[in-house]
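Look over this one:
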Amino acid sequence: MQISGAQMVIESLIAEDVSVVFGYPGGAIMNVYDEIYKQSGFQHVLARHEQAAIHAAEGYSKTTGKVGVAMITSGPGFTNAVTGLADAYMDSIPMVVISGQVPMSLIGTDAFQEIDAVGISRPCTKHNYLVTDAADLPRILKEAFYIASTGRPGPVHVDIPKDVTAQIAEYKYPETVELETYKPNVKGNLRQIKKAVDAIAASSRPMFYLGGGIINANAAEEVRELVKMCNIPAVETFMARGTLRVDDTNLVSMLGMHGSYAANMSMSETDLMIAIGARFDDRVTGKLSEFAKHAKVIHIDIDPASISKLVPADFPIVGDVKNVVNEMLPLAKEKVDGERYASWRETVANFDKLHPLTYEDSDDVLKPQWVIERIGELLGDDANITTDVGQHQMWAAQFYPFTRPRQFTSSGGLGTMGFGFPAALGVKRGDPERISINITGDGSILMNIQELMTAVEYKLPVINVILNNKYLGMVRQWQTMFYDKRHSSTDISLQPDFVMLAESFGGVGYRVKTKEEFDAALKDAIEKNVVALIDVTVNRLENVLPMVPAGGSLFNMMLEYKDK
């Protein structure tokens, strides 16, 4: 049928079974928004800032496993969105972001709200397109969804000039995609898989190193079975939290810069690292030359570029994690005897007994770790947890009792302050039955505070728990430890009244200074079922520990910090 380019965008989204689009209109995308007004196939959620629209799409994708979709206009609309694109790219989140562009005749003339969106997005997208003919739109959009969701997932950007959205052309949405230069290897080499299982069977101190690729591949159940079958200790990266249940006896905890003593020491002593869906991020490895230096390395990943990129793999396996682990399971059942690792498991347990992940609680001032533990005690599996970036993010990863994959959504690779609240809106839209909790700081929450209006308009009752220490806490911690307490521009004692702020948008606010007040506020916020800000006064100078100084070795952790 003959329809406009704008209509093609809508029909293509419906063909991809898209149920929600997050966006913000403007001149260059106006033809598409006119068609959004007429359609009933999906919901459009109007964010109050383009960056927030992208983060909301990220949150939706992270909690559902589906491709997140966002729509924005040209010029500043697009540049506002770049942070979200970069965030999704770093964390391998499948997304399609559609932007408007000035008419083709004006491209390159410095027209009003013109920007080279394709040039800007090239370094922070998996792929991008500038559409020059409406007849190409169905194919391009089909390819965009395919590329975003296959192989190593990531954001795909489609830039459409305004005159192209007005063109009339034949619309036929493709049923399949064939790209000669893009054919992800999903199977995994069986010979390499057999070698890897033999290496596990022959090892004495093996460790599973579980990464976020497991979550992306929807492979947590298979990995849980493999870990249980082999009876081998496992550590999770920040992005992999929830892969194993908190009460899994083989789960040591998180490793890395703020990982536990047991996790970091175990990784330093292992003789075989089984890395699944991990990319050896610097916040995990610390000093690369010292990272698991006694270990042979099995590395399983969908992205061939990640294999041996930073740590040479003795047993490289390129393939979809779910497929590879399913191939490993019967082989491991036959060849791996978990009893041979009993002494190794005892060693790992002793590491945990020596320096458990803990904190010093207080009845005089709320400790941020207690707040997070308390949320876990009260809500547990019933909550989806989102965070912003900073100390609160690390405490959430350390102390929340995660029980399932996709329960935890945070900005990992890019470390984006302002991510948490809009992402939590997307999480709530994707999983409306569970309570959406955004654990945030007094710095981060203000970076996208305007989304209170989005939450109210679309009835997305996200509960924001602000761990308020009146500092940019993580920067202050570094300044205290490494800059002789020169707290340059990190004291943010001048703050709005968060209670009044929440209420001015139509939400609810709470001011909390005691444990009893926190319990009452959380209960009331859940009952009221509207967007909430719980302003929790916490200990100002609390530090995130353990801590591996930047560039240091995992086994050289700071386990405590005594103020001089």
Observations:
- DSSP finds 21 helices and 20 strands in the chain.
- The chain has three domains: 2-170, 190-354, 368-537.
- The chain has a mean pLDDT of 97.
- The first strand starts at residue 2 and ends at 4.
